[in-house]
Design brief:
Length: 427
């Protein structure tokens, strides 16, 4: 089994969030030491540095993805407080990340105009001497993105990448390029230069092995199929068997492509929604059905296309409390069509709605996708617009909170399936 080595070149202990491996538990690496975790083929996740409890720079990794290659990138879209690089062990040609990101950020900040500093007062955090110690989420501040691109463009993920009908920034998209085959991965952290050592190999004397017993289960039928690059499932060769995953049916009268997004992180009643790295996609003709296998660690959603606003089918494959799959329908980020979610274990649980609510939706509650499709607006807001009160009122009247989340909170019936497989119909 291949591994991910996390090398801390700094002189202090550093804590990292680990998603997808190590039982999704944080790991603290002592200064000057290296910790190693198992990373099974087909697994996917992230190593995220924490700074005073805030998420910062992160290495996003998929092992043995499309074509037998590793896919990985270094992202700063949720913030930064240190320097990090990622590469395949022994292959510096695959190195990604800005080794002195924070020093370059500080230089850019010192040269910035007072107007820029005023705009970024809630995103750039300095010490008493005025030196930058941490930055907030770049994805939430176009002004911060503009400043960071002056020194990190083409070296890390700065923006949110290609999605929502936008091609994104080419230099960001290139960060998700494939590695050279399937190898061990080296993540290097430092307050100073985070370039890996000359031999690019972790020092065996300083490596702390992390128990593989904490690794989440990965469905063998799905191994090798995970990748940050969007990957289509061939519906013509549909596997009609079932296991952990989704049985997806296109109930509409046109061909549609459905995208699966695994959350970046999951907390107690909270989650980090993924908007830029779909795990896979499935193209289905009218009336077609496809079994889509997923790892039991999956917690996220599926949606039609990549553009917002749209209907979200939110689900997890194996809940920590009962091991069952759980899911619901959400219209908080808009509605582009009806959807239902149902159990497949014989318990006959089902929720959602099937009627066309868009044809009579008032103009004040609606907008259009880039392809011209009529959709309802977000009810909770996002970076594009605030909550739409007309949409809230209309959806509460024609759907209701019990059938789908309109404004979050509670009151929407959960659908559970003990066999880790849910049936989803998209209308």
């Amino acid at each position: 089994m291949h591994t991910i080595s996390i090398h801390n070149k700094s002189g202090h202990d550093q804590t990292f969030e680990v998603h997808g491996w190590h039982g999704n538990q944080n790991i603290t690496v002592k200064g000057g030491q290296t910790s190693k975790i198992d990373a099974p083929d087909g697994s996917s996740g992230a190593i995220i540095a924490l700074h005073d409890g805030h998420e910062g720079e992160q290495a996003e990794i998929t092992k043995n993805g499309f074509g037998g290659n590793d896919f990985f990138d270094l992202s700063n879209i949720v913030g930064a407080g240190g320097n990090m690089t990622v590469m395949q062990v022994g292959d510096k040609a695959t190195l990604k990340g800005h080794p002195t990101f924070m020093q370059a950020m500080n230089n850019a900040w010192q040269k910035a105009s007072q107007d820029t500093k005023n705009k970024l007062k809630n995103f750039v955090f300095t010490d008493n001497s005025g030196t930058v110690r941490r930055i907030g989420p770049i994805k939430d501040s176009p002004d911060l993105e503009k400043l960071v691109r002056t020194f990190a463009d083409g070296k890390t993920y700065v923006g949110i990448g290609a999605w929502n009908g936008s091609p994104g920034n080419a230099n960001d998209n290139n960060q998700s390029s494939a590695g050279h085959g399937n190898k061990d991965i080296l993540v290097t952290y430092n307050d100073g230069d985070a370039s890996p050592g000359e031999d690019s190999q972790p020092n065996a004397a300083s490596v702390a092995e992390v128990s593989s017993e904490l690794q989440p289960e990965v469905d063998n039928a799905f191994a090798g199929d995970l990748t940050f690059s969007t990957m289509a499932v061939n519906a013509a060769a549909a596997d009609t068997s079932s296991g952990p995953g989704i049985i997806l049916t296109n109930k509409s009268n046109k061909e549609c492509t459905y995208f699966f997004y695994d959350n970046y992180w999951n907390g107690n009643g909270t989650a980090g929604a993924n908007f830029d790295h779909p795990l896979k996609n499935v193209k289905l003709g009218p009336g077609a059905k496809q079994y889509v296998p997923l790892p039991t660690s999956f917690k996220g959603r599926l949606q039609r296309g990549t553009a917002l606003p749209c209907t979200w089918v939110e689900f997890q494959i194996s809940a920590s409390n009962d091991g069952a799959a759980h899911g619901d329908i959400s219209l908080q980020q808009g509605c582009d069509g009806a959807a239902t979610i149902a159990s497949t274990d014989g318990s006959n649980r089902k929720n959602g709605f099937t009627n066309d609510i868009l044809k009579d939706a008032p103009a004040a509650a609606c907008t259009k996708k880039p392809d011209g499709t009529k959709v309802t607006q977000t009810t909770v807001g996002n970076w594009m617009s605030g909550p739409n009160q007309a949409a809230i009122e209309y959806l509460n009247r024609v759907v209701g909170q019990r059938k789908a989340y309109i404004v979050g909170g509670s009151g929407t019936d959960d659908v559970a399936s003990g066999n880790k497989c849910l049936a989803v119909d998209m209308y």
